[in-house]
């Protein structure tokens, strides 16, 4: 029995948590898939799956084997694609991790177009801002904003967005609208903190080569921009948001821009992947697609007001 066939059968059972569904996806009889997994367990001399009449779950040993198996299968797929000149047809399982706001507002609305273009790619998209070990977690690429400090990864710039300061009408009616940065320092603010570093970010403004940092009077710090925006809409403080997120709230009148004469910082957005993924057709396809989406996205301050 081919080792790669048994490995593929096992990974598909883990992903679908069902022998029946795995068999359908592989176009094989259920008995064949079951026999392949049993043969794999016998060869490894370890139990990989817990089975009941209604449920299949992976054991700790099986979880460890699964992470290694999907990497091996991915590398085999890429090697065969390169040798057979099939790189023009990206296919296979693609695991990515993106910030939730980017996933919700930029990627998810365009997924139908992605699958029309790349019908043989199966996408698994995690939405987080957490530190990701791409190699050990078997993740093909991530999208992240800000400065990149991990020199072990290949970084391709997708675009950029600007941070603008906003306030809810109810907050501005009660506390007034700041006219300059000195006044802003005395206002209540809703802050964003990074899940990656735990750092709470101040409001940053750029005037030529001079950068001014404003802390304000923090009322709450949240690690998700969408929740930050909802909190600010309740009237508890001013907020600095990426313009592509703020558009939804400014269009409805829940937030209005303040300090229009002050320029906030520009945040670069990157797609990152390990050096050994640079020839992957599916990673290259995803990178090109996301770059197109970012090029079309409305990130300028005029569109956010």
TrEMBL record:
Is DNA-binding tagged as a keyword? yes
What is the designated name of this protein? LysR family transcriptional regulator for bpeEF and oprC
As given in the record, the signal peptide range reads none
Domain HTH lysR-type, first and last residues per copy: 1-59
GO BP annotations of the record are: DNA-templated transcription
- What GO molecular function terms would the record report? DNA-binding transcription factor activity; sequence-specific DNA binding
Is this entry keyworded Signal?
no
Among Gene3D superfamilies, the record links this protein to:
3.40.190.290, Winged helix-like DNA-binding domain superfamily/Winged helix DNA-binding domain (1.10.10.10)
**So what family is this one in?**
Belongs to the LysR transcriptional regulatory family.
Instruction: Name the PROSITE patterns on file.
Output: HTH_LYSR
Record keywords, A-Z: DNA-binding, Transcription, Transcription regulation
Checking InterPro entries in the record gives:
LysR-type_TF_proteobact-type, LysR_HTH_N, LysR_subst-bd, WH-like_DNA-bd_sf, WH_DNA-bd_sf
């Amino acid at each position: 029995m081919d080792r790669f066939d048994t490995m593929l059968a096992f990974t598909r059972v883990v992903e679908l948590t069902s022998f029946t569904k795995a068999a359908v996806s592989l176009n094989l009889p259920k008995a064949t898939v079951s026999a392949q997994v049993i043969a794999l367990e016998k060869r490894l001399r370890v139990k990989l799956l817990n089975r009941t009449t209604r449920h299949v779950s992976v054991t700790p040993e099986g979880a460890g084997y699964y992470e290694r198996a999907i990497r091996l299968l991915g590398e085999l797929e890429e090697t065969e694609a390169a040798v057979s000149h099939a790189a023009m047809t990206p296919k296979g399982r693609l695991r990515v991790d993106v910030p939730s706001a980017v996933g919700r507002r930029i990627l998810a609305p365009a997924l139908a177009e992605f699958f029309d273009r790349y019908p043989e790619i199966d996408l698994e998209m995690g939405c987080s801002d957490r530190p990701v070990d791409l190699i050990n977690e078997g993740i093909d690429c991530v999208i992240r904003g800000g400065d990149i400090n991990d020199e072990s990864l290949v970084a391709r710039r997708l675009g950029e967005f600007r941070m603008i300061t906003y306030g809810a009408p109810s907050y501005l009616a009660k506390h007034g609208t700041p006219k300059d940065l000195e006044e802003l320092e005395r206002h209540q603010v809703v802050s964003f903190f990074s899940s990656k570093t735990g750092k709470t970010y101040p409001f940053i403004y750029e005037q030529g080569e001079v950068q001014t940092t404003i802390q304000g009077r923090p009322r709450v710090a949240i690690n998700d921009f969408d929740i930050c925006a909802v909190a600010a809409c309740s009237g508890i403080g001013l907020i600095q948001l990426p313009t592509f997120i703020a558009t939804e709230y400014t269009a409805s009148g829940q937030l209005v821009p303040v300090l229009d004469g002050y320029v906030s910082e520009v945040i670069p957005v990157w797609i990152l992947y390990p050096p050994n993924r640079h020839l992957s057709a599916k990673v290259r396809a995803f990178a090109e697609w996301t770059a197109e989406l970012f090029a079309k996205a409305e990130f300028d301050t005029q569109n956010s007001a």
